[in-house]
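Input record (one chain):
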Amino acid sequence: MMNTGWSPSFTARVAERMRQARKAAGLTVAEAAEACAAQGLPVPKTTITNLETGRRSSIDLAEFLVLAEVYEVPPVSLLFPLGTDASVAVLPNREVPTWDAVAWFTGETRLDQPAPEGSARDVLDTFRAHSDAVATALASTQLAKERRRKASITLDSGRRQALLDTAASYEQLAFDDCRELREFRHAMRERGLVPPALPAELSFVNEPDPED
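The corresponding structure, as predicted from the sequence alone:
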């Protein structure tokens, strides 16, 4: 059954959250319009006012993204009232818990079926897992370096040995984490995916092992 009221009510709710975000950012409508122009996309004051007052029943996607940047809020937080409303009409005739709506929008979880292998949501999951692997490898590598640095500047022999032992354990952990990250990136490439660039501290993960 057609739900003709969903679209304008969804837009009105988003526009209200945008108004709240603008005020929280301490911006007048004129200042918001100027900031949009500075971002490279002029958004007239009348457009912002018409959205906030309900005289405009739709939102241009480009304007929406630029305004979210100007207000310094994640775009998804403007779409769904996470933390204030228990549920939201995510689609016509379909109301779900607000967190489920956010997770559906970002591809983090399903609404009714798991993501098929190779689907867009599956690719998103893969890149999130890669981000987690990078964070893990970076943390263990930095911890190992920090313990070894502390060991090099202490004159207490007992503490120095303890730090060296700890550094060795962290270095083994970092080795395992970096090896897993390399294998993960290799698996991504075999699927035809292009892995994101690595932080400078982990650039060696992309390098082949030296020949014996």
